[in-house]
Automatic annotation (TrEMBL):
NCBIfam families found in the cross-reference section: PaaN-DH (TIGR02278), PRK11903.1 (NF008868)
PANTHER family membership: ALDEHYDE DEHYDROGENASE B-RELATED
Segments of this protein annotated with the region Disordered: 470-492
Family in the record: Belongs to the enoyl-CoA hydratase/isomerase family.
Domain MaoC-like: 554-658
Organism annotation: Microbacterium terregens
Pfam families xref list: Aldedh, MaoC_dehydratas
Keyword Oxidoreductase: yes
Alphabetical list of InterPro entries matching this protein: Ald_DH/histidinol_DH, Ald_DH_C, Ald_DH_N, Aldehyde_DH_dom, HotDog_dom_sf, MaoC-like_dom, PaaN-DH
Protein name per UniProt: Phenylacetic acid degradation bifunctional protein PaaZ
Annotated keywords: Oxidoreductase
Domain Aldehyde dehydrogenase: 14-459
Amino acid sequence: MSGILPSYIQGAWWTPADDAGATDVRDASTGEVVARVSTAGLDLGAALEYARTVGQASIGALTFHERAVLLKKLALALTERKDELYALSARTGATKADSWVDIDGGIGVLFSYSGKARREMPNTRVFVDGPVEPLSKDGSFLGRHIYTRLPGVAVQVNAFNFPVWGSLEKFAPAFLAGMPTLVKPATPTGYLAEAFVRILVDSGLLPDGALQLVSGSVPGLFDHLRLGDIVGFTGSATTAEMLRAHDSVQTGGVRFTSETDSINASVLGPDAVAGTPEFEAYVRQLVTEMTSKAGQKCTAIRRALVPAASVDAVIEAVRARIAERVVVGDPRADGVTMGPLASTAQRDDVLAQVARLEAAGGEVVIGSTGTPSVTRADGSVGESPDGAFVTPLMLRFADAAADAVHQLEAFGPVASVLAYDTVAEAADLVARGGGSLVTSIATHDPEVALELMSRISAFNGRVLLLDRDDARSSTGHGSPLPNLVHGGPGRAGGGEELGGIRAVLHHMQRTAVQGSPEMLTALTGVWHAGAAANSAGRHPFRKSLAELRIGDQIVSASREVTLADIETFAHFTGDTFYAHMDEEAAAANPFFPGRVAHGYLLVSWAAGLFVDPEPGPVLANYGLENLRFLTPVSPGDEIRVELTAKQITPRETDEYGEVRWDAVIRNQKDEVVAQYDVLTLVAKQLAAA
Ligand code: NDP
């Protein structure tokens, strides 16, 4: 008999005093007991409080970049021991390819978030959102939006299908935001979640209280939640509905996002007839989505929308590809390409859903609902009733408008083919899903893509356009990517677990702050025009990152602009645009008084005015942002520049950091001629002489 699967609570592994009432968890192929789970006697309230106190304090001490670096180290720790995870994953029914999505996919999420956070977030603890909003004429009263982390715990309630990836996709953004996580995996595959958490704990890298795991059920969990906590749920719409109805969510201010059943569609464009690359790609993708992870993917294609004239061709092509490629059996046997479902309960549930689809007019045209003959672990072939096996199943609906096909999810290797006559009708059918995670469109006709997109975007979290140009490089209909939104409207749950930095901000509160430039500078760590600046002492280019402070400034001397300069610049660069070269034509232009200086000439001169040329800590200029030319400059005008250190971002893993400078070019009347941000890399320390 297997022992009780431990939970990781308050910094220690925990198991109940005895196994009374424990649930058996079984190998998906053989029915053998893999683990037993029980949370009898577990103090959930104390675990949550530990996260809110110890976890919040330890992660809160780190900046976004420090957290990002830790994520990368955690990813490396998992990579080193991923063989252990693969071995266990086979017990859940996952083939090697399925496990790759779950395990390497999960590790990949950590790597991606680590890189994105270091590129796209400041090395601070507060995230500034959007530009300054001027609120007074004299610039003494400004508005700015800032994000600060939620003060509670990020609770994950996960589905059984991706115990590693499903958890890491939520953990990464929560951790970056600065929130501790409590993971509650689904019981049937919780032993794989326990294994990855154990690797992370063993690594010694996790800040105290950053991650806790509950192996087993969580009665009363929501009674302990309060304002400042967030729940990310993945699973059935029924459970989501029940949890969302809890008082803590309804009136207690607990954030609740969910990802639930999604009846995703894949549309074959009218142009993509048999023989076209789009038709081939459509069929390949459909079979992949039906069989990968035995169809137990929230993103799998459930509805294949096909022009009426192509329905038979699609069914035949799918049948042929399944016959050629798909071998159902124990994932540990050679040659098996599709494993069982996660549990016999899940198998029974899928078959019951298929029966409902048949009762609603669906005809099974590929596969059968009987007990299949499968490849066993020892390579023999035959029935294996203790395993949760089903064959890939395709149904055909004569009536594409039948409610059931748009509402019932058979969470297994099951898809239905529906015929459509017009693109508008196809779009209506997509929308009948009531909100989906993803739809794909196989077409090489931009008109078809445009018409569908304009009608279905609002019903989807993601849309994949598949054609001959991207069929080989496409990451596929069913693959959520950490940098793109994963979640969808309506019955898909409305959540957004992934989506790059958007998902991090999900775990933070956006607050509009109104105040003076001085206050906003102090609060955000970003210099705001109007706050104190320091132009005394050494030129800021002579200061290392350790010495430079925001507000350090250089105010340049003035330089006169002459017609000869403009002409020289024009001929030197080849930019002889009439506004610089032809007095009469320039004067006829509503924006110019006559010939004017090139904007690029002014920006180049500004660099010459603010630069300190000797070798020093400034290593490189890597770009300009937000450049605007605001006032034309005529021959005889004078310009000068003010350059102020606006934001300093040390890089955790390099000997230098980024400095964003506020650059303002003014004319002799003090009017702003141009403004922009200059981006430089600056050494952390001055090189030893
Ligand atoms: P459930 O909704 O039953 O379970 C999902 C998670 O919720 C599990 O971790 C489960 O824990 C937990 N849970 C259940 N009841 C409670 C509760 N009262 N309080 C807190 N947590 C609770 O979904 P299943 O995993 O059983 O899957 C059923 C169906 O959900 C599938 O057939 C499919 O239709 C859909 N599904 C959708 C997915 C998606 O990504 N969109 C993914 C997986 C499933 P425990 O396991 O311990 O009961």
